[in-house]
Description:
This protein is α+β, with helices and mostly antiparallel strands. It has five helices and 16 strands.
Amino acid sequence: MKNTISFLILIACSVYLTSCVDQIPVEEFAVPHQAKIAVEGLITSEQKAHTVKLHYSTDYGKVNQPPEPVEKALVTISDGQNNFELDEVSPGIYQTDSLVKGGVGVKYYLKIEWNGEVYEAEDEMQPINSHEQLTFVEEAGRMEFPYRPHLFGFDLPNKYDVTFFVPDSIVDANPDLPDWILQKKWTTKTFHTHPLMEPNGIFEFVATDHLIFNNPNYWVKQKKYSISPEYYNFLRAMFSETDWRGSLLDTTPGNVPTNLSNGAVGFFAACAVDSLLYPYPTVEK
């Protein structure tokens, strides 16, 4: 009898507690979002068209939607002596002409004029050390590249773009290439090296992606980018809020720093580049 009474009391408490739960929309606690200009700009030591992307910042409810571009802005990059005006090649995307080339040790200035406001930023291009080919490993008779987006314990912070591709000349000369090669004709992966052992980054629970392009028609193009101290502070804070969020050792959420003035967010960076080009490795017989 005593056990029956205890059981009935437990059920009554459960009903009472669940009936007292009211769903409160998270929107009631949200601070009204004030859109800001978000900037993603880069000039490198390569001779090419350099790009600055402008769009409005979005609130938490629209993070999965394409951002609204900032159009018809006047965008200029300067090295203190020469001014490079950027053309809007598509909504919110601005580019220099293809002859512009940055220089190591030079400080570059970005100026954005839009809607009666001026936004400015600056970054100095750091030197870049030459680098070696990626380390491929042999597995089951084929060569693969173990890819992870973040690597730790390096001397300097750097960004790497690695492209696995089939040259157009090979495609044109071999019309019978398998569909799987043509579908993966051009694949680019980006990863960053970090000088510190970031606990929240190390425990991010991202599985290694074993990239395999086991065909002699593939080539590899590597690009290594230098990163200024200010740019790395921005990247490190951004990764703490994105890639490294949700690990066992999360950092306290905070605002990501910027080198933009007048309330804009994002970063304008100047990076030197070292490039390598070589055939995709094959298994030695």
